[in-house]
C-alpha cells in the first residue's frame, strides 16, 4: 500500500470539513473515484470524524481552575529522611562502624570458623549422607559489613547534611 502524501491527507480533511474550494473539491472527487487506496483513507477519515463529533465533551468542575492554581502555589511535599532522623541514622551507623572496627582490631574475628550442617535435625531424618561443613572467614565478613556501613553513612551524610548545606549555599546571593 502506497503512503498517501500529507498534503493530500489535508485536502481529504478539508473535504470532510467542507472548507475545500469547488475546483479542488472536483479534482479530489475524481481522484477518489480512480484510487481505491485514497477512497479507503477517505472512508477512515470520515469514520474518525463521525466518532469524534458524536462523543460528548466532558466539562471540568466549576472550581477546577481554583484547584489547579492552589496546587501550583503550594510547596512540594518533602519526601525522604528528615534532617533529625538522618543525623540519628548517621550517628547509629558511625557507632556500628566504630564497634565493628574496635572488635576487629582486638582480634575477636581472627579464628577461622565453619558452619557445620551435620548438627541439623532434618539431616538425620531425611538426608542420610553427611553434609560438608562450610568454612568462612569471620574477619572478611566483618570487613564487608563495615564497608557496607561506610557506604550507607556516606549516602545518609550526602542526603541529610551535605545536600541541604549546598542548597542553602547556592541560594545565597553574594
Q: Keywords, please?
A:
mainly alpha; 174 residues; two-stranded antiparallel sheet; elongated; 7 helices
Question: What would your notes on this structure say?
Answer:
The chain is elongated and about 100 Å long. The two termini are 66 Å apart. With 174 residues, it is mainly α. The chain has 2 domains: 6-54, no CATH class; 83-171, no CATH class. The protein has a two-stranded antiparallel ribbon. The chain has helices at residues 6-17, 22-34, 36-54, 64-73, 83-105, 121-126, 138-171, and strands spanning 113-115, 134-136. Helix 2 (22-34) crosses helix 3 and helix 5 (83-105) packs antiparallel against helix 7 (138-171).
Order of neighbouring strands in the sheet with most strands: 1-2
Weakly predicted, low-confidence segments: none
| Radius of gyration from CA coordinates | 37 Å
Secondary-structure element order, N to C = HHHHHEHEH
Structural class: mainly alpha
Cα separation of the termini: 66 Å
Amino acid at each position: 500500500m502506497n503512503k498517501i502524501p500529507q498534503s493530500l491527507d489535508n485536502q481529504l480533511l478539508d473535504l470532510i470539513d467542507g472548507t475545500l474550494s469547488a475546483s479542488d473539491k472536483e479534482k479530489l472527487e475524481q481522484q477518489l473515484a480512480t484510487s481505491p487506496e485514497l477512497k479507503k483513507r477517505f472512508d477512515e477519515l470520515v469514520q474518525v470524524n463521525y466518532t469524534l463529533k458524536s462523543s460528548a465533551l466532558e466539562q471540568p468542575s466549576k472550581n477546577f481552575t481554583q484547584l489547579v492554581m492552589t496546587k501550583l502555589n503550594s510547596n512540594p511535599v518533602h519526601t525522604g529522611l528528615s534532617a533529625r532522623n538522618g543525623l540519628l541514622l548517621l550517628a547509629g551507623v558511625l557507632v556500628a562502624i566504630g564497634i565493628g572496627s574496635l572488635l576487629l582490631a582486638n582480634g575477636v574475628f581472627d579464628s577461622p570458623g565453619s558452619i557445620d550442617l551435620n548438627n541439623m535435625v532434618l539431616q538425620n531424618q531425611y538426608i542420610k549422607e553427611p553434609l560438608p561443613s562450610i568454612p568462612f572467614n569471620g574477619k572478611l565478613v566483618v570487613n564487608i559489613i563495615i564497608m557496607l556501613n561506610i557506604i550507607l553513612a556516606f549516602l545518609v551524610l550526602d542526603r541529610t547534611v551535605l545536600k541541604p548545606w549546598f542548597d542553602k549555599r547556592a541560594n545565597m546571593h553574594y
